[in-house]
Amino acid sequence: MNDKAADIYVEEVMTKTPVIAKPDMTIQEAAKIMKTKHVGSLVVVEDDAPMGILTERDLVDKVVATGKVPSKVKIKDVMTSPLVTVGPKESVAEAATKMSKLKMRRLPVVSKGHLIGILTENDILRISPSLIEITREWARIKRPGSAEDSGARIISGYCDNCGAFSSELRAKEGQMICSDCFEQWG
């Protein structure tokens, strides 16, 4: 992965003031906070301990799409929990890999049970734009039912056999070849 990101700790690039919410707040109150603070998530905290996260996706999937009334639904009923976190001394590369594997765009940073920040894709992007692309590509390739599951890795690039650009290159005998050449190769 990116050497620069491997040498940088999460605590060096994280957002040090994550926006928080209480579990008994309503979704409507939470949405107002998210709008006012221009954030896509709220870390849900109770007694100074993080217990979940409420994301835009939670609002869409668990409230709006199901026809629930935002002023009557509590955060604790739709937040994502248990909370997946990262430590401040983990490398950014390790955190990015975790985010990619779990298809997450943000990870709360926790030390000794206390929320001390949040690491987002934007934080990573500031230090290493290529790392985001690498982790997204890795997640796409690792998707269940993907070509890698069947032993063939599909990527974009130029065919080693015919030189044509393809968004579906596959490995064959040490070369990356397009679908047409792959079929002709036998």
CATH topology of the largest domain: CBS-domain
Number of domains: 2
Rounded to the nearest angstrom, the distance between the terminal CA atoms is: 33 Å
CATH class label of the largest domain: Alpha Beta
Helix/strand/pairing category: alpha+beta
Outline of the structure:
The protein is an alpha+beta fold and about 190 residues long. It is about 40% helix and about 25% strand.
Can you put this structure into words, describing what you see?
Mean pLDDT is 82; it is low at 144-153. A hairpin with a 2-residue loop joins strand 7 and strand 8. The protein has 2 domains: 3-134, CBS-domain (Roll); 148-185, no CATH class. The longest helix has 14 residues, at 129-142. The chain has helices at 3-6, 10-13, 27-37, 56-64, 75-78, 92-102, 121-127, 129-142, 179-185; strands at 20-21, 41-46, 49-55, 106-111, 114-120, 154-158, 165-172, 175-177. The chain is built from 9 helices and 8 strands. 38% of the residues lie in helices and 24% in strands. It has a 3-stranded mixed sheet.
Using brief descriptors, characterize the structure shown.
single chain; 186 residues; alpha+beta; CBS-domain; 2 domains; three-stranded mixed β-sheet; three-stranded antiparallel β-sheet; 8 strands; 38% helix; 24% strand; elongated
Topology at a glance:
Blueprint: H1 3-6, H2 10-13, E1 20-21, H3 27-37, E2 41-46, E3 49-55, H4 56-64, H5 75-78, H6 92-102, E4 106-111, E5 114-120, H7 121-127, H8 129-142, E6 154-158, E7 165-172, E8 175-177, H9 179-185
Parallel strand pairs: 1-2
Antiparallel strand pairs: 2-3, 4-5, 6-7, 7-8
Helix pairs in contact: 6-8, 7-8
